[in-house]
Amino acid sequence: MIKFFDVLRKCSLFDGIEDENLDKILHCLRATPDFYDKKFTIFTEGKPVKYIGIVLSGSVQAVQVDYYGNRSILTETTPGGMFGQAFACSGAIPDTLSYIASEPSDIMLLDCNHILHTCSNNCGFHQQMIYNLMKNMANANIELHQRIEITSKRSTREKLMAYLSLYAQKTGSNEFDIPFDRQELADYLEVERSGLSSEISKLRAEGVIESNKRHFVINM
Amino acid sequence: MIKFFDVLRKCSLFDGIEDENLDKILHCLRATPDFYDKKFTIFTEGKPVKYIGIVLSGSVQAVQVDYYGNRSILTETTPGGMFGQAFACSGAIPDTLSYIASEPSDIMLLDCNHILHTCSNNCGFHQQMIYNLMKNMANANIELHQRIEITSKRSTREKLMAYLSLYAQKTGSNEFDIPFDRQELADYLEVERSGLSSEISKLRAEGVIESNKRHFVINM
DNA sequence: TAAATTCTGTTGAAAATCCAACAAAACGGA
DNA sequence: TCCGTTTTGTTGGATTTTCAACAGAATTTA
Questions:
Q1: Cβ neighbours for B129, distance < 8 A, ≥ 6 positions apart
Q2: Residues near A43 by Cβ (< 8 Å), separated by ≥ 6?
Q3: Interatomic CA distance for residues B200 and B198, integer angstroms
Q4: Contacts of residue B2, Cβ cutoff 8 Å, sequence gap at least 6
């Protein structure tokens, strides 16, 4: 647990909670880290999501595959981030959505009810965590809005540029590494991989961007 | 206020609150209904969303228009529903998103801070409302997931059928009226209106659906 | 190190969407 | 009722995406 302490204190669920209390809370929540191999399905479509996940290392993707085999990546969660909150809180079952480790990952699963309801130990941090969880959910909502803004563009080129621009804005730099390989980026943008590759080549030829694998530079 | 009492008690923000207390709460929140004409922009892109909106009559759409003039409808909120929660709670500014009355509508705006923070009147319902707001936000999240599932389909036909199937599932019937006209449906599905119209005609010719204006029947 | 696998870019033909323009139908207001 | 506006459906050509197949590069495994 100590190993991941620095990640946990960055998790927005624990905002406003002193370091010395974090340990108590984790104990109260009976939370222990688990390791998952790459491609392991943490929450499976069709089954209730019983826990809120916190990524300690690696990364987790929300993925859905439709009837025709088209794969979409809805969200990517990196260390310090949470996943599955909405389903865990509402009790809704994700009919077509799974949460999958996209790398070897350490994950901590928290029982939503333990967070929402004051415990017998009378540990007084539930109020703060409920507030934090709400803020987190609001932000998750806004991130989905941003994803929709990107994928609502009508062409592959516009989608890609919208994605790269937003990423540049978030990192505060025109030069960065994206968290997706080509296939994953295509699944996030909801376009064909081959078409995406050729569009990247064109943009590079036009001097709009520079790129190598996951590394991108936007020229202005 | 009495006029909209029946709508308000159905709003999930007030779940678990007795009718006789609802009046007190609304007074405590200093909430009064306002009327908006069709097409009036209630929350404008680029400006902070200071309130949570509750639709009392009519309907409100979350709309974004991109650089090229493509319009997307992200959500449609009907009486009893809420809008703007995520932005109001997180404090994030919707860069490209506006909330617009799609019909003449009565709306009640609530100050988010008044909900989140216990008031001096010591009215004891904030706890319940915070809990309700969290559940509501979780559900809003899931609705965005569902919209993404629909729009992530690669063809106009699949998007339309996914939308109609989900709508049938939600209403519990294969026969229903959708809340969009053709242009709005196209903007929701992120396709061309003309292409959508012709696809509807084809599906009708094939006997897959029956339709007239906003009325649809899915044949099985 | 060699072999196997995965990832990436390229290409061309088939399919679908987008766009613009138009006409008919429906609707709303004077 | 009449007129102007909005909504809907239709069509064809330009544009774009999709699909399938392949080759080279990079990475992983034995």
A1: B13, B14, B17, B25, B115
A2: A49, A53, A84, A87, A94, A98, A99
A3: 5
A4: none
What does the pLDDT look like over B127-144, one tens digit per residue?
A: 889 999 999 999 999 999
Residue of B70, B131, B153 with shortest CB distance to A154: B70
At residue A54, the 3 state secondary structure works out as strand
Task: Sheet containing B97-101: give its strands across.
Answer: B41-43, B97-101, B60-65, B71-77
The CATH class given to the A2-147 domain equals mainly beta
Query: Dihedral of the CA atoms A102, A58, A44, A74 (nearest 10)?
Result: -60
**3-state SS, residue B173:** coil
**Which residues 83-102 in chain A have a CB closer than 7 A to strand D?**
none
Decide: A60 and A101 in contact? Cβ < 8 Å: yes
State the average pLDDT for chain A: 93
pLDDT of res. B151: 97
Whether residue A158 and residue B68 make contact (CB cut-off 8 A), yes or no, is yes
Q: Please provide the CATH number assigned to the domain covering A153-218.
A: 1.10.10.10
Q: What is the pLDDT of residues A162-188, one digit of tens each?
A: 999 999 999 999 999 999 999 999 999
pLDDT of residue B123: 65
Q: Where are the domains of chain B?
A: 2-147, 153-218
Q: Indicate whether A218 pLDDT > 70.
A: yes
Residues 157-216 of B with CB under 7 A from strand D: 181-183, 193-194, 197-198, 200-201, 211, 213-214
User: Comparing C-alpha atoms, which of A116, A186, A120 is closest to residue A156?
Assistant: A186
In angstroms, the CA A115 to CA A129 distance is 7
Instruction: Inform me whether the pLDDT recorded for B220 exceeds 90.
Output: no
List the structure tokens of B71: 């319009």
DSSP readout, B36-72?
Answer: E-TT-EEE-TTS---EEEEEEES-EEEEEE-TT--EE
